[in-house]
Write a structure and sequence with these properties.
6-stranded mixed beta sheet; alpha+beta; 2 helices; 106 residues; two-stranded antiparallel sheet; 45% strand
């Protein structure tokens, strides 16, 4: 079981959508260069808004990242037990989009 601020979830499942905090922004910042590369340009904004997490042999994060007043992207980031983060997926979404499980790049 995973317990982050008393939220429990089964290994392999995603938890509820939560507001992003400094820790989640830090996860995004670790892979910002890869996100910018996939987007093709540096966004006007880069702010983690909401996320879901999935415990595996580390943690998969599904994070809604604000890019402008109207645009966002959903990123999938895997962070291993040592804290190394890898970008595993990205898709463009509206700023109000809820984070959700997905695979790949769109």
């Amino acid at each position: 079981l995973y317990n982050r601020d008393t939220e429990k979830m089964m290994c392999g499942g995603t938890g509820e959508s939560r507001a992003a905090d400094a820790e989640i922004q830090g996860v995004c910042d670790k892979v910002k260069d890869k996100i910018v590369e996939k987007l093709g340009s540096d966004p006007a904004q880069f702010k983690a808004l909401k996320y879901k997490s999935q415990v595996v042999a580390g943690v998969n994060y599904f994070i809604t990242v604000q890019l402008s007043d109207t645009d966002a992207c959903l990123v999938r980031v895997f962070q291993d037990l040592q804290g190394k983060a890898d970008l595993l997926g990205l898709k463009k979404v509206d700023v109000g989009a809820e984070p959700a499980y997905f695979e790949g790049f769109e």
